[in-house]
Amino acid sequence: KYPYSHRASTRWHCKPNRRLFSLTRLQHTKSDAFEVLAESYEFNEIEGRCLAFRRAASVLKSLPWAVQRLEATQDLPCLGGHTKAVIQEILQYGRSFEVEKILSNERYQTLKLFTSVFGVGVKTAEKWYRRGLRSFRDILAEPSIHLTRMQQFGFLHYGDISRAVSEAEARALGNIIDEAVRAITPDAVLALTGGFRRGKEFGHDVDYLLTTPELGKEEALLLSVIDRLKHQSILLYCDYQASTLDMDQLPCRRFEAMDHFAKCFLILRLEAGQVEGDLQRVEGDSRSWRAVRVDLVSPPIDHYAFALLGWSGSRQFERDLRRFARLERKMLLDNHALYDLTKKEFLEAKTEKDIFAHLGLEYIEPWQRNA
Ligand code: DCP
Ligand code: MG
Q: What is the residue range of the signal peptide feature (predicted)?
């Protein structure tokens, strides 16, 4: 059942960090008990349980009150028996033994470390773990391991890109991208997406959508922007993926990890002087710049609204919205389009509001989508 229709829905999406549910926050690891459980299932490739814990964490995070007794969670959606048992344990003992066991597990710790590298997914991390590798030093010293270019740059800039990006840094990057885009196509459409559009104060990267009012010119714009960043000597790494969009292949009936728009995953060099205040840095770091991960996505203008909604996240919000579309409206929603299975037609949208209207939902602002 669509969780937004629940009575608690007025508080479902809180402004980030304002009313964080503190019960499951593990102070010593700065993580969330349910996030640890979800991750542990993810590492064991048990997707259903992983998603169940992510959804439960979202429900708890949205509460305007702290849970003091298990009974208080009785009418909340998406909380299964396992989740309730963990809540009960934390209420009773102030800790979860199951979570502590996971945190001290060598496999969990190693996979967590390895997947924190740009370009390393669970499968690769698992492969390295099975070969007996336990640290970055082990990996880099192993001659038979062939790192992809993305992983090489992930290791090279690990210190910088594993550190959070601040709002001020995201703004500074926004100015750089904006300047590059306008110099090429003055009337281009550019939008900040991802966590920063939802009002988050920190993120792991900065995400932008850019396109041209004229259909078919968007990919050339993206390539020119990349070229310009290269000439400005701020492009440290670029993984460009050309568009594979084919309307005949839509709607996608199975879940796909990535959409088909032209895009690039970048590492950019950001100078301290460009940032209001200062760079996010670790103590003792006196460099005048840092590396930041940036994603640029370039959908054709007629898919822009869907891409904007999809890339604004959060991931959990997108999952729930798609599920709602499918189960309650018999419609397929993804980053490209909305397809009505009953009428057997694509529904057009120029704005996010049009998409919400097609779904029969009240429009909600990006900052309310922090599920
Ligand atoms: N997204 C998507 N498909 C992907 C990757 C991302 O639809 N394969 C969407 C959902 C995300 C948004 O794009 O919310 C941005 O992705 P990020 O991984 O950058 O996530 P956030 O910006 O929300 O969080 P962070 O602060 O970690 O960057
Ligand atoms: Mg992001």
A: none
